[in-house]
């Protein structure tokens, strides 16, 4: 044995503190963006059936939720609206008193330092459930751009700190950037869902946002999960058009894409830890098959290791609590 020559890698794993000392990847509460679904009406706090722990919240209960979020040290939320009224053009998306606009004003009134991100899309607001104007069964790209720009401007006027367009229409970042600049919001950044796949992991979100398409699917505008290089083309186009952040969505099955985007572009990269990823963990944990905390922390650490700077996740409050406990 004395003649053997080999490396002693285990020396750096000998104790908890030593492992912490040499840890390469760190997850912080500052990395988290918490999604919230806001609905119209009063005294509504209804759990989404497919997403345990996620609720539809009416405006009168929103600030109580914000009190908890801010108390946990979370510095950013992304708001999704679930309106009572839907129509062909999704007019509630860009109405001055749309649900996201009302929620944004309310949150900024109570917590002006909290970073409020507005999801900018039409699918929750259209009667057909698609992310654009529909004519004879076709989703029209260019006419939709005007409505997306109107939506972004109305959200910025309400006080949104960041606009996050998620529709995947060609040219959507250019149209929104132009609209914001023309309206005097040149300082408002765009967090583009620039790399958004047509994924099977979105099912529970569509339950939460009431945004399931009434016909067909979104494969003509969201990306093919089999494609890798297309992600770089999409990201590059959005950055050229004025995007300040790039979101990769979903996260877990696309860690290679996250790394590609991070390696190629020097901008903040955001992972969306989507509803299907969340619900699978919750279901397995409820059955006692996994340790929820350990699984979640490993999942999100893998996203950070892959290169993300920020993570949109429904686990945000849980993670913030766990991080506080670990201190």
From TrEMBL:
Gene3D superfamilies: Aldolase class I. GO terms for biological process: protoporphyrinogen IX biosynthetic process. Pathway: Porphyrin-containing compound metabolism; protoporphyrin-IX biosynthesis; coproporphyrinogen-III from 5-aminolevulinate: step 1/4. One of its GO terms (molecular function) is porphobilinogen synthase activity. The active site is at 196 (schiff-base intermediate with substrate), 249 (schiff-base intermediate with substrate). It catalyses: 2 5-aminolevulinate = porphobilinogen + 2 H2O + H(+). Keywords: Heme biosynthesis, Lyase, Magnesium, Metal-binding, Porphyrin biosynthesis, Zinc. Its cofactor is Zn(2+). Zn(2+) binds at residues 121, 123, 131. It is an enzyme of class 4 (lyase). Mg(2+) binds at residue 234. GO terms for cellular component: cytosol. 5-aminolevulinate 1 binds at residues 206, 218. SMART domains: ALAD. 5-aminolevulinate 2 binds at residues 275, 314. Its EC number is 4.2.1.24. NCBIfam families: PRK09283.1. Catalyzes an early step in the biosynthesis of tetrapyrroles. Binds two molecules of 5-aminolevulinate per subunit, each at a distinct site, and catalyzes their condensation to form porphobilinogen. Belongs to the ALAD family. PANTHER family: DELTA-AMINOLEVULINIC ACID DEHYDRATASE. This is Delta-aminolevulinic acid dehydratase. It comes from Litchfieldia salsa.
